[in-house]
Design brief:
By secondary structure, the protein is α+β, with helices and mostly antiparallel strands. It contains 18 helices and 14 strands. Strand 6 and strand 7 form a beta hairpin. Helix 5 crosses helix 12. The relative contact order is 0.14.
Length: 370
Amino acid sequence: MLEVGWDQVFAWRMNRQFLTTPTDAGPVAIAERLAGLQAQVASAAETAAAVRSSEPTPEAVATALATGDLVKTWAMRGTLHAMTPEHAAAALALIGSARTWEKPSWQKTFGATPEQVTALVQVVTDILADQVLTRDELVDAVLAEPGFAHLGEQLRSGWGAVLKPLAWQGALCHGPARGTKITFTAPAHQIPGWTGVPDPDTAAPTLITAYLGAYGPAKPETFDAWLSRNNLRKTVVRRWFADLGDTLTEVDIDGTTGWILTEHADELATATLDGAIHLLGPFDQYVLGPGTGDTTMLPAEHRAEVSRAAGWISPLVLVDGRIAGTWEQADGEIVVSTFDSQTLPKRALAAAVDRLAAASGTPGLTARLA
């Protein structure tokens, strides 16, 4: 078993996630490395890619979505993500295998039986086979079919609860925006070479290795919390990890165990922190990957300052890979609120603000502590 400390883990994660050294490879490579960019708020995905880019460009994620190099769909934890088609297909397969829409609590809340969801999948697949529709256009087309009239309100809901099981079964994904309106289409219509949603056992190695390549070392339970909010059977997830065999190495991190890809073990063992401060945008994968409940990264007493009401995840201040505060932009300033009034080295903070200014295309930003 490899033994390391948390400093090594955070140093390795920041390097793997293109924070220590930004990449010139573009948003698709960044989304691939992070196993997706949270895109519930489109600007958050753009920021996540830009702060990791050595040459950030405006609307880089939107451009990749328009060309089908990335796909936007309801994936991890039922939230919208911009992902590579391969990772999206794998995520949909694993999330869909939980069959959450078959649970009595889901049926009671949303008013659709498993049989009706199956029928919806077929109807929506046919409707979207060769076209892109707004939500209202799609719902009108569905309601024109017999048997779905009682689902009109749920289908029109911005939360998309009844549409998510359709996404997880590969019946729809988001299409190019039409002005301020979102659209839906079939993955095969949007994504060149789309081959469908694979079998879960086939998909598991793809997504687990992607996850561990950015957020390892991690336990099977941590992976499942990131993916499905622990809706999958624990025995199944553990088997998926076990089936990876020697491609995984067990790691002891100051008494806590987890798994990392064996190919990354040497890098983890030699990783060191550089003292840099990083300013990350809202909904950043750095915290969403391990989860806001990870107290080694985010002190429990400050979790509510990061994970806020209505599912909002605050912009982050990282010091030595740990979350040390949050920030907001106001009137050309970055206003930093550190936990417990922690002071920050002025030079390191100024460098972080400069990187954020370049990423956001807003030169001249300055910082002050709240």
